[in-house]
Amino acid sequence: MMRKVNSYQRFMNTRALANCRYQPTCYEHAANFYTHALLIVPAFVGMTLLHVLSDNSWERITAWVYGVGLCGLFVVSTVFHIITWKKSHMRSVEQCFHMCDRVVIYVFIAASYTPWLNLRELGPLAAHMRWFVWLMAAAGTIYVFIYHERYKLVELAFYLTMGFFPASVVTSMSNTDGLHELAYGGLIYCLGVFFFKSDGVIPFAHAIWHVFVALAAAVHYYAIWKYLYKTPSAESLLHSL
Description:
The chain has one domain (24-229). 73% of the residues lie in helices and 0% in strands. It contains 11 helices and no strands.
C-alpha cells in the first residue's frame, strides 16, 4: 500500500490549503497544457465553419461572438498553463493570466448561450436574457478581480448559477430542437466539476476536467451547427467548386 501511495506522489502533489492555489506536478502541468492546446486549431476551424454557413450579418456576428468565446477559452487556458509549467519568475504575469483564465470562463458561458438567444425566437421577457447573460459575465469578471482565489466555493457557485440560469429561458422556447444536446452538454460540465475540485485528491484531476470541458463544448457546438446554422447542400458545394 505504501509503495502504491508513493507511486501516486510522482503525479500528484498534496491538496492545497484553503484559499491557496494547488501546485501541479510537472506531469500534471504537461497534461493541463496539452488537453487544451490541442483544441485551439479545431476551435478556430469550428468558428470559421459557422461563418461560412451564416446566411446574414446577424448570424455572422453571432458566430463571431460564440467563436471568440470558444477559442478564447482554449487559448487563454493554454497560455496560463504553459506559463505556470515553465515556472516563470514573473509572478505578476502568472497572476494576471490566472485571473484571465477565470474570467474567460464567464465569457465562454455567455458566448455559448448567445447563438440560442440570438437566433431563436424569444418572448418579450426572454429577450432581455440576451444582454443579461453578459451582465452576469461582467459581474463575474469584477468578482474575480476583487476576490480572486479568496472564496473558491463562491466562485464555483457563480459559474454554476450563470450556467443554469439562462437555461430557463432557452428551455421555454417554442422550438425545442437541440435542447437534448444542450442538456447532455450541461450534464457533462456538471460531472466535470467533480474533477475541477479534486486537485490533490485524484491524479491529473484538472486535466480530466479539461477533457470534460472539451466533450461538453463539442456537444454544444454540434447542436449549434446542426440546429441553428444551415448545412450547405451537396449541389451548392459543387457549384462553389
